[in-house]
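Notes to self, Sodium-dependent transporter:
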Amino acid sequence: MNNRGEFSTRIGFILAAAGSAVGLGNIWGFPTQVASNGGAAFVLVYIILAFVLAYPVLMAELIIGRATRSNMVDALGKITGHKIGRATGVWGFITVSLILSFYAIVAGWMISHCIEALFSFLGQDAASQWLITQSETRNLLFCAIFISLTASIVVGGVSDGIEKWSVRLMPTLFVIVGILILYVAMQDGASEGMRAYLLPDFSKITNPDLLISAMGQAFFSMSLGVGTMLVYGSYISKNENLPSLGVSVALVDIGVAILAGLLIIPAMYVAMHNGVTIFNENGVLIEGSNLIFAVLPELFNTMGDIGNLVAFAFFALMIIAALTSSISMLEVPVAYVVESKNVARTKAVWFIAAAIFLISLTLIFNFDWLFGLVVSLTTEYSQPLLGLVLSIYAGWVWKRNEILQELKNGNEAAEHSFFWRVWPWYIKFVCPVIIIVMFVRSFF
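result:
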């Protein structure tokens, strides 16, 4: 177990964990939720809920991971002392593998649109049209490319793979976002988008559905419940103060979501100024894949040649956001196979990557009925239930003195900290109730 690997620097872990949390949902879901639900008032509620719901569960995963120095299956087996714990770990890595299988398809679309912008700039119209037209061939090719990119990073291990690339990709993401924000802000219509995003409308935040949506956004945006943070936690040095590390990860994740809003919402209003439809038939801002693959490309088309360069930068940003999440997802099953089955890392990575690609292939050939079903089963049902079980394990099953001893590794005075006075009862009583409310709401 001494050869497991470890993050070599604090900033390396923060960027890797924040990269895991920063995914496509931060960029295509959060901004339109904000603009449709009270602007800056929603942002305030989201930040509060990120710390009252997501942060405690994030800390549960990090503490379990570092205390056990194990993959998800072995870690949950150790703290529960029971096969049920190990079964939960297996459930987690199956869930995260299924999420990665559809995530890779969507990320493949990002790659094809990024390349299309380049081909369009060069006047290769036939190739450009093929790259943005839905087809099984295109989807298979670019899904395979994305999974190969992910695997090639994870093969390097913790410090030479995950950390090395996270400290390169995350700053690149910030630079691209910053440049695009400045460019979009100078376009006609952007100021109206800024007002929709930044002016608070507190009348909307008393809506119970809105509050629960904000809870869901906070919980899922930090990629909780599926073991990514638990596995990353197992690679943290024993000298680090875990609660402060967790705060850093949460702040970076929130920061990226807010920056994405400063880019996406003004861009949508610029699109509207240029004659592009940005509201659906119910008067709600378009979000999700329709926003990314329909509304924004139409905007880029209205910009002339510079639009191709803006499109290239935007889809490069989306690829980076997807890649920093996918490497953490792939590491969950890889860590299990390497540690529990004694398989060499290179062989384990490519074997699991191939297996996930086969699942993606099945989704591509049965797209109309299977893709949405897998997305729904994993993100709406399996992920919150896993988060609930992890809260129960940390709050009710794992011995409090063992948790405290782990926290003391990075902070001798942990017993007298504000975190220790609040977190144990909070993860025991409050988090399970909130997650159950979210889960029940998803049925209605």
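- The two ends are 46 Å apart (CA to CA).
- The chain has a mean pLDDT of 91.
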